[in-house]
Each structure stands twice: as structure tokens, then as C-alpha cells.
């Protein structure tokens, strides 16, 4: 049915001074970025480093010491910024010094550049719910969904049946509860959510695991002005970084790249990451648009007949109370004990009869596919299998 297709983008690096990197320079920048995030063979400078941020500092400082040419030093600044924004957008930390250099994360086999061929990401839910290709198909469980309810308390201990109490006062009992919150919600609310409190080892995992945020700013234009299959990485010069400070637009340094939407030829998506995400989410639409105009003028107006966007959408995952961030990562706090905290987080809560009453799923509970959708899906199957095995015994 051609549900999936390979996504092919021609990625080019655009500099704030109007230059476009040639292929050799592009490879140099990519190799530098990849080296600081190599969890198997970190750079020799980073053998004692604990975090990606520390590794980046060490490698950058060593390069600075080895050269005197001002232009070469400027290039190191630019490579360092690209490496920082790339690593931040992959793993979502607000600070790379909290992102562990060595990780148990595994790359999923297969083609990592598949997309939904215009169907949209909701397709995966329709497939899982057996509502594809007809999303209007009714299922026996449709009347069991209770949406737009905020959970106040989950009661679980010394009870045969746990219960969920919602903010509007409803109580829902069940034999088992599979709970799939974001790690951000657990970090902020676990003391209020669970009655009684969670056991100490689970709280320890929640506190020490990393959870960050990225942001997308989505721009719709009257007409497409960029080449087909074009994607852009941006590189700020030291001089232009100073200009951003003067314009109070330093948050634009968080932009890691711009890609076209797969199913709308008039849409570009900007990816933002790093320490400015909480600030960007609080900006007014007018200020965000001012920043987008600055980006378009600085990087693209010298190369294309650029128009201004006529519509804008942006995410707010960091401040959204249902998420409080995007996805988990391994923090430096996790590494000293060599403990896989995802495995602690996944362990079910048992009642006095040794019955699993609260089961945990979600990307942060996968031991090596954390931060991914496929990891989250696997954990749902894992907990369903756990209940099947319980009743078999």
C-alpha cells in the first residue's frame, strides 16, 4: 500500500555570512559532530570525560591550543556550535554537561530514514489499533476510552484492585493499571500522583534519569521558495553571535536545522534544542516571527527569492503539563553505579498478594531504545506480555 517511503534530503550547511560549505568542509563538520557523540569509541581527548559537554570542551580547547590562525580558530568555534546543537537535538538535554558520554542506547536496525509517505504520524496508532487503512472503523474497545481526564491520584497498595482518581472526582478501579507517563511528569508529580509513595529505588531512578526538551517551529509560506528535497543546517559565526546578543535574539543560536515537511510543499520545520528552549516557549508570537525573519534574511535571502511566512505553529512540550519535556536520555548522574535505571523504572508495583497492580511503560522504561517511538511501543507489548504470563502461572 506504499505506506512508507525512504526520505531523501540533500543536506547543506549554510553560514550566517552567506557562504555554503562545500562537500569536503561539510564532511569535516559532520565528522567533528559525530566524534563527540561516539558512545563506543570516544575521541582520545575524552577518555576521562563523563559527559558529551565535557568531551566537546576538551576537544575544542585542544584544537584551539594547537593553532594560531584567526580564521582557523573561527572554524573551530563554528564546528563546536554545530556539534553542540546536533547532540542537543538528538538527545534533548538542555545542557550537554548532563548528557552521559557513554551510553547503553542501541540504534534500531533497518532504514532510519523512512517516513509515512504523506499519511502522517498518526498512522502508527491506526496500525496498532487495527484501524488502518480505515481510521473510521469501529472497534469493540472504542467505548472504553475515557479521554481528556487529568489524573489526580493512583492508589495501589494493600488493595486487591488499584484505582485511579481524576481531578474532577471520578474513581476508576481495575485489576491492573499500565501507566505510561512521560518521565518529566514523574519527576514533577510522583509525590502527589501515588498513594502510597513510590518505593525508594523507583524514585532514585526518576531523579537520576535525564529528561530534556526540543522544540519545532513550523512555518507555512504562500509558495515554496526552496529547492525540492532540500534540508539546511545553519552555522553562526562569532561575529553574528554577538549581533544576536545585541538584538536580544540569542535564542536563535538554538536552531540546529531546517527541513521541509514531507507532505506539504509550502512548509518548513525549524528544529531548536538546548538551554534556550524554556525561554523560546515563553516568547510571544510576534517575537518568534521576528526571529524567523532574522533567520530567513541571514541564511537564505542571499541564495533564494525568500518570502515571509503567513502562518506559524510551534510546540510547547517543555511547559505542557502532560509532558514537561520530550524524551529521556542517560544523564551523568546515572553512570557512577553502572545501574540501568530504565530497568528500575519499568518494575511493576506489587500488592501484598504479589500481584502486579501498577505496570510502567513508555520510552523511558526501555533499557536501550529509550527516547524513541519504537522503544515506547515495545514497552507496551512488554507489559501486556507480563500480564499474560502472570495469568498463565
UniProtKB/TrEMBL annotation:
It comes from the Eukaryota. InterPro entries: Amino_oxidase (IPR002937), FAD/NAD-bd_sf (IPR036188), Flavin_monoamine_oxidase (IPR050281). Residues 142-388 form the Amine oxidase domain. It holds the Pfam family Amino_oxidase. This is Amine oxidase domain-containing protein. It comes from Hypothenemus hampei.
